[in-house]
Amino acid sequence: MSAIRAFGELIGRRSVLGGLGALSGGLGASAMGRRPPRDAPDQTRWIFDRLSNIGGALTTVEGDPRLVDSPYGKAVRFDGVDDRLVIDRHPLTGMSQFTFEALFRPDGGVFAQRWFHLNEEEPGAPPSVTRMLFEIRVTGEAWSLDAFATGPGYKQTLLFQDKLFPVGRWYWVAQSYDGKTYRAFVDGQLQGEAEMAFKPQGVGRASVGARMNKVDYFKGAVREARFTPRALAPEALLRA
User: Fold this and answer.
1) Global confidence as pTM
2) Quick one: 147 and 228 in the same domain?
3) What is the pLDDT of residues 128-185, one digit of tens each?
4) pLDDT tens by residue, 16-50
5) 181, containing H or E segment
6) SS3 category, 145
7) Domain range for residue 1?
8) Contacts 24+ apart (CB under 8 A), 37-42
9) Is residue 83 domain-shared with residue 134, that is, in the same domain?
10) CB-based contact 159:113 (threshold 8 Å)
């Protein structure tokens, strides 16, 4: 009888431990749903919890962007009039494949807003036409994503205005290129794709809150961006 009892207790312990493991795994997935446990070593993150030294690069403030609270920590809010940050780095320089993600909250405003602009720019030279952007199109209380990339031999827009999302909420958006196909995502959901003959972009700068030439200002907030030198699978993309 003691042997049977011992065996039963062993099975019970395994069952409990298995249940706890499954529960902790479920809790981990839920708790970390906004972020994987860690970024890969080759990924770069920019956190917009300050108005200087974004991503370790020289950052110039224009207008009056403000730090605000968000569910994810501090974020930078832009007024849609003249606020922007210019960051002295193009984080996708030299990448033949990439994933570019950003956590943002659109707050309405004008129809066309070009809110995250990466531009090739040799030191001391004017910006070239080679660039990639996150843009949005706002209609009333809804917005749609516009991802755009252009350079020598390629120019591609991914804009699907029938796929609308409410303003005033946080979203992770992404654009990726796997060596053949350019794709755009909102919270891990594919918005659309197209083949593109992309070529790696050179050194340059980033403008957050408006296009590099100070047009199409953004009304809303930005918390974070992540840059990866390969195309991430949809399940690896971040979600709000």
Assistant:
1) 0.83
2) yes
3) 999 999 999 999 999 999 999 999 999 999 999 999 999 999 999 999 999 999 999 9
4) 333 333 333 333 333 333 444 345 678 999 999 99
5) strand 181-186
6) strand
7) 1-31
8) 39/226, 40/228, 42/228, 42/229
9) yes
10) no
Contact 84, 59 (CB under 8 A): no
Q: How many CA atoms lie within 13 A of 57 on its CB side?
A: 22
Domain identity same for 61 and 136: yes
- Which residue type sits at 67? L
Q: Containing H/E element for 191?
A: strand 189-195
Q: How many domains does the chain have?
A: 2
User: Both 16 and 122 in a single domain?
Assistant: no
Residues 164, 97: one domain? yes
Residues 119-133: what's their mean pLDDT? Answer: 89
Say if residue 17 is in the same domain as residue 80: no
> ∠35-156-192 over CA atoms, to 5°?
50
Q: Does residue 9 sit in the same domain as residue 74?
A: no
Residue 79 scores a pLDDT above 80: yes
